[in-house]
């Protein structure tokens, strides 16, 4: 079985092509007698092929092992200076420096331009101090060209790539957050529409269901006409509420006239209507408004309190035993409190079925405003309590 090369060390096909072309160019220069330092005949001419072969092999690892390629490559290019030299060897070394910054770890990419820049400065100073000729500056320039310049170029490219990647990630995160906001907004709007539809229409439909059942079971014409009158009144009011809601939903551009929002000032008529609807079931309704005069709460708070009372009265019409339903509204210590007490017990006569959505809607309205909501049986009374920040 052959040796399996890990994917982390497998050469990239572009690196294979680049290394092959570089070594081939170096061999062509050597065969033609083109050398970077032909005056250095300390070693045989073929010795220049050793650094060329080593750096050419390192080119295969320029992406996968940048630390190894820079270390060995530096030794190889220094060794090349003791031979007649090869221009291809120097070009390969510059590419290794560039690749080390582009593909190396972030710490290496930060250090390499700084270290090569310092080396260039030191080599320039030492060369000028030693040779004391203007030509000594060329040594520093060449050092900068083959080490600092490619490292700086690689750092610039890497910074651009990282900035582009960061911008792409930010765009993806922004799109994800926008989609999450849109989904939450749609869900919140659907929940709000469900609460409004339930609170506005359920009261009228419950009264219609109760009185239509009573009308079917009553033989006297007077009682039947009274039940039909209640049915008609609730039908007209329910239809008006439905038209108002449909108008709000269709008004996407905000061109319609603003619609009056229900407030606690309308509790008198709301309780009076509940008394009319519940008379046939033996229910009476009482309102105790203990709010200070001339101090209305914020519109969202008053709307939530109104809807809670409205839904509590609807539930009383559906389920309460004969007796008095008491509605209390008070304001103190920065809180608007709403309470509805309904008789709890067996009830004869027609009843309207319940879905449980009313309690959910009241709790949601309260929690959206940061208030507290409770509902449950206390002896022979069903109590609903809501405390809203005024």
Give me the strand/helix succession: HHHHHHHHEHEEHEE
CA radius of gyration is 44 Å
Q: Give the overall pLDDT as a whole number.
A: 81
Q: Enumerate the strands of the largest sheet in spatial order, edge to edge or round the barrel.
A: 1-2-3-5-4
Tell how many strands the DSSP assignment holds.
5
> Based on helices, strands and strand pairing, what is the structural class?
alpha+beta
Identify low-pLDDT runs: 1-5
Number of domains: 2
Q: How much helical structure, as a percent, in the residues?
A: 55-70%
Query: What's the shape?
Result: rod-shaped
Gap from first CA to last CA: 81 Å
Q: What fraction strand?
A: 5-15%
Number of helices: 10
The biggest beta sheet, please? Answer: 5 strands, mixed
Question: How would you portray this structure in words?
Answer:
The protein is an alpha+beta fold. It has two domains: 7-173, no CATH class; 263-390, Histidine kinase-like ATPase, C-terminal domain (Heat Shock Protein 90, 2-Layer Sandwich). The protein has helices at residues 13-31, 49-58, 66-80, 87-103, 106-131, 136-217, 221-250, 267-278, 299-319, 357-368; strands spanning 283-290, 323-332, 335-343, 372-378, 381-389. A hairpin with a 2-residue loop joins β2 and β3. α2 (49-58) packs antiparallel against α3 (66-80) and α6 (136-217) packs parallel to α9 (299-319). Mean pLDDT is 81; it is low at 1-5.
């Amino acid at each position: 079985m052959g040796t399996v090369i890990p994917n982390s060390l497998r050469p990239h096909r572009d690196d294979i092509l680049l290394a092959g072309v570089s070594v081939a160019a170096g061999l062509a220069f050597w065969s033609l007698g083109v050398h970077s330092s032909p005056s250095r005949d300390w070693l045989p001419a073929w010795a220049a092929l050793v650094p060329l072969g080593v750096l050419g092999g390192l080119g295969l690892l320029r992406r996968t092992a940048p630390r190894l390629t820079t270390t060995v490559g530096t030794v190889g290019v220094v060794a090349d200076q003791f031979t007649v030299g090869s221009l291809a060897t120097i070009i390969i070394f510059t590419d290794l420096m560039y690749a080390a910054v582009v593909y190396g770890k972030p710490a290496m990419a930060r250090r390499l331009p700084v270290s090569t820049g310092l080396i260039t400065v030191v080599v320039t100073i030492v060369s000028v101090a030693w040779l004391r000729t203007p030509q000594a500056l060329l040594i520093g320039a060449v050092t900068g060209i083959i080490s600092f310049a490619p490292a700086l170029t690689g750092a610039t490219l890497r910074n651009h790539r990282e900035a582009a990647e960061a911008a792409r990630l930010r765009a993806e995160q922004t799109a994800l957050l926008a989609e999450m906001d849109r989904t939450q907004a749609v869900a919140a709007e659907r929940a709000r529409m469900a609460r409004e539809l339930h609170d506005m229409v359920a009261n009228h439909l419950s009264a219609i269901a109760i009185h239509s059942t009573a009308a079917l079971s009553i033989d006297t014409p007077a009682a039947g006409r009274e039940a039909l009158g209640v049915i008609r009144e609730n039908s007209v009011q329910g239809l008006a509420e439905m038209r108002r809601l449909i108008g709000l939903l269709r008004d996407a551009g905000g061109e319609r006239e603003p619609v009056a929002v229900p407030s606690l000032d309308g509790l008198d008529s709301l309780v009076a209507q509940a008394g009319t609807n519940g008379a046939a079931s033996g229910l009476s309704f009482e309102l105790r408004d203990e709010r200070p005069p001339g101090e209305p709460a914020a519109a969202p708070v008053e709307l939530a309190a109104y809807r809670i009372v409205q839904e509590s009265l609807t539930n009383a019409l559906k389920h309460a035993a004969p007796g008095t339903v008491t509605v209390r509204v008070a304001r103190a210590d920065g809180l608007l409190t709403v309470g509805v007490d309904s008789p709890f017990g067996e009830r004869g006569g027609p009843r309207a079925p319940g879905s449980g959505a009313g309690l959910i809607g009241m709790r949601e309205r309260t929690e959206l405003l940061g208030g507290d909501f409770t509902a449950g049986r206390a002896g022979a009374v069903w109590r609903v309590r809501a405390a809203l920040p005024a």
